Structures are given as structure tokens and as C-alpha cells.
């Protein structure tokens, strides 16, 4: 996928495309010393990272508050924050437990003047009330629900980007959690799934 194809799919404003390109360059530079993403995935930035993240907007819409757990390299949180710039009510909390990743994220937020706040700490310990809680490549569903449950219990909906084992992960999680969830085929990769979680309560 090219940048033009991404713009056609998302309707992203030219200013937001410029922000995404700047983010791509900064990520590439930082990745040489920090290993934020697999280096062989960077040439496919627009499909594998940007579009994979941006598709969540179609499910949630703009004007929402998000908590991105294990925000890492900024997917999906930074992409969502870039697309949300200039849209009232939109804000993204980028939460990560590693300080060096938070420093990288803060550099991006400052450079691009994003509607986002970087939080250094454990996801499950934050007392945030948001509309959407999200994560990508953080943990299997049984563990991820533990991280996300405080947000879900405060009224958030979960939108989690998962791979081809999403259904199996949900089955395993159901042994520990009572989950109200469904799966949507990813638009960036038909093997992937988006797990929408409306509620999750630990069994027993």
C-alpha cells in the first residue's frame, strides 16, 4: 500500500498525511537503535501499521477518548491521535510500562502536537475513564483482558487488534473470563481480527 492508497481509504486530510509521514520517518530513525517494530515491517508502513491502526476509526468514529495499552511504537494510538487532530473531543492516552518507549512516544506527541498524553506505568493501574480501550500485539486475550478490565468496568468498549489466532485466544480467555465480545475481519489483513469487547468479568 502507498501513502496515496492510504489517503484514499481513510480520507485523511493532507496535513494529517504529512504528520503520518513525519511519524514514519521518526519511527524509522528511532527503530535503528530501539527495536520498536520488526525492521522488515517498516517498508510496509502504510498497510501493516498505519492502515491496520486507522481502521479502528471506522468502528468507533471521531470525538472519542482512547486508552492505548502497551502503546510501544505508537500503534494504534499515535495513528489515531494524528487522525484525530483538530476534531473536538478526541484524545488518546498512550500507556506503556517501559520508560524508553515513553520517551519516544513523548517526542512524537511533542513534535506533531498531538491530542495525546503519554503515561509511564502499568496499564491496569491507571484510573482513566475513556470511551475506547485498545491494544495491539501486547498479550494473549486472557492476560489482555486483565489489563483492560479496569477500563471496561468504567464503561469503555474494547477494540483489540489481533492476528489469526484471535478466536482461539478468546476461547482460552473464556475459561477465566465471562466475556461479551465478537470478531471482525481486519481490513488490513484478512487473516487478522478486531476483537470488540463490551464487557469482561473474571469467573469465580
Automatic annotation (TrEMBL):
Matching PANTHER family: S-ADENOSYL-L-METHIONINE-DEPENDENT METHYLTRANSFERASES SUPERFAMILY PROTEIN
Transmembrane portions of the chain: none
Species name: Brevundimonas subvibrioides (strain ATCC 15264 / DSM 4735 / LMG 14903 / NBRC 16000 / CB 81)
Functional note: Specifically methylates the N7 position of guanine in position 527 of 16S rRNA.
GO molecular function: rRNA (guanine-N7-)-methyltransferase activity
Top-level taxon of origin: Bacteria
Identification of the protein by name: Ribosomal RNA small subunit methyltransferase G
HAMAP family found in the cross-reference section: 16SrRNA_methyltr_G
Biological classification of the source: Bacteria, Pseudomonadati, Pseudomonadota, Alphaproteobacteria, Caulobacterales
Subcellular location: Cytoplasm
Gene: rsmG
